[in-house]
Amino acid sequence: MRRHHPKRVGLLNEMIDRRATDVSLHTDSNVLVYLIHGVTGTPAEMYPLVRGMARYGWDVYATTLPGHCTRLTDLVRTNEQDWLNHVQRQLAFARSRYEHVFVVGLSVGALIALQASTTVSVEGLGILSPTIIYDGWNVPWTHRILRPAIRIVPRPLQYLLFHMDGPPFGIKDPELQARMRAAYHPLGLLWR
User: Fold this and answer.
1) ∠ at Cα 94 (85, 18), nearest 5°?
2) Can you spell out the DSSP letters for 49-63?
3) What angle do CA 60, 64, 67 make, to 5 degrees?
4) Rg over CA atoms, the chain
5) Measured in whole angstroms, how far is the alpha carbon of residue 41 from the centre of its chain?
């Protein structure tokens, strides 16, 4: 395999709705792999895929969904339609600059990838752990009251109903749990 040396500067620097937390690597390819994280996730959790895809000589872009990577209050002001619109705009931008576009989504990002591909033509999809029903083994019993509570509680107060996932982050593999603990450790976040 030919060794590729990805750069951080390229076609994607002008990406529409680009955020400081977005991650991109460029190899001067005509192929783009566009990555979408899950709800409450970040592009950082997609970084192993970013590096791996760039090694194959493809340009890679990991987006930040609206409301993510800031405050919880920003997140509760967004919804799945905001995330879908964001992804569709970025994919349309990418489509005009790349001959081949592939989309990979994780969890809810997988569902967004599927939906976005119905309006923006892509060559292929990578669907990683699509969320059908949130039934994680780390979810508290109070999750059952969330759906009725959302209908009753005014939107500005709904952030109080959020389940903040913590260790083991719904992950059963001990090695992956350790990586996630390190990635989300408060001190680790300061030195990135």
Assistant:
1) 60
2) HHHHHHHTT-EEEE-
3) 175
4) 17
5) 6
Q: How many CB atoms lie within 10 A of CB 43?
A: 22
pLDDT tens profile 33-87 = 999 999 888 998 898 899 889 988 999 999 999 999 988 778 888 989 999 999 9
Which residues does 18 contact at the CB level (< 8 Å), separation at least 6? 12
Q: What is the pLDDT of residues 76-104, one digit of tens each?
A: 889 899 999 999 999 999 999 999 999 99
How many angstroms separate the CA atoms of 46 and 39, rounded?
13
Mean per-residue pLDDT, 157-176: 66
pTM score, whole prediction: 0.73
Q: Indicate the DSSP class of residue 28.
A: S
CA distance linking residue 53 with residue 32, whole number of Å? 9
- Under DSSP, the state recorded for 160 is G
| DSSP at 19 | -
Task: Please report which helix (H) or strand (E) contains residue 89, including its range.
Answer: helix 80-95
**Distance from C-alpha of 74 to C-alpha of 96, rounded to nearest angstrom:** 30
